[in-house]
Structure formats: structure tokens, C-alpha cells
Amino acid sequence: MGFVDIELTGSDDIMSRLGILEKQSKAVALAAVSAGLGVLTSAAKQASPGTIRREVGKYIRSSGDMVTGRAGLMQFPRKGDGQSGPHGVYLDQGTKYIAARGFIGNALRGASGRARSAMKRAAERKIAKLATSK
Q1: pTM to 2 decimals?
Q2: Domain of 27?
């Protein structure tokens, strides 16, 4: 596990396959980050009480060769939202009247190991797919 078997004949074939992998490095990074964020988002949604799970999400940004992402609470209250606006941040982080529960942070810390392994598996699958394509 963790190895990709590639059968190559001739130096031109080797160089072309390595060139494909180099050109598609961003695709590998996107696949890995997306898989890890999916695990983290799922864990945060499961840990959220009531309708707060609708405020949990993820986003992925890519700039050049760097791919970053964030998972957790995505909706925050704004002035004028009223009673039905997003309120998960108040329960999770607390206010002077509400004690902080920290359920999102605990869920993300608990799922970080599973997220790392999901990222590794996704990167290996993407590399294997790119290595076998012509």
C-alpha cells in the first residue's frame, strides 16, 4: 500500500509520464485537499446540534500551485439578520451570556487523523490514475 506500479519501456515514455505528473500536480493537490475537507465537514456537521449543521461547510482556494481550504462554520451573523440569522458561532465560541461549547473545534480535532488518511488515499488514487493514463 502506498506504492504505484508503473510499467515503462524506453526513456521517452518515462519522461512523458513524469511530465504528465508534474503538470498535473495541482490536480493531485486539489483531490487531496477536497477529500480531507469532506471528512472534516462531515464530522463538524455530525457534531452540530439542531439547525446549526446548515451553517457548516467548506471551501477550497487555489492560487498558483498552492491549494488551501477551510472547513467549519461558514455562516456568521451580520447586522440586520434578526432572530432567524445564523447563530452557531454564538453557541460554539460563546458570549458573555452563553458558555462556549466548542463542539466544532472538538469535532475537527477528532477527525484530523481520518482527514489526513483520506487525503493520502485521494492523492495516491489521483497519482495512480495519472500514471496509467496516456
Answers
A1: 0.79
A2: 11-132
Residue 107's CB is within 10 A of a number of other CB atoms, namely: 22
Classify residue 2: in a domain, yes or no.
no
3 state SS for the chain? CCCCCCCCCCHHHHHHHHHHHHHCHHHHHHHHHHHHHHHHHHHHHHHCCHHHHHHEEEEEEEECCEEEEEEEECCCCCCCCCCCCCCHHHHHHCCCCCCCCCHHHHHHHHHHHHHHHHHHHHHHHHHHHHHHCC
Tell whether 4 is covered by a domain: no
Q: Considering its fold, how many domains does the chain have in total?
A: 1
Question: Which range has highest mean pLDDT (63-67, 117-121, 128-132)?
Answer: 117-121
70-79: pLDDT as tens digits? 999 987 777 7
Number of neighbouring beta carbons within 10 Å of residue 127: 19
Q: Per residue in 81-91, pLDDT tens?
A: 777 778 888 88
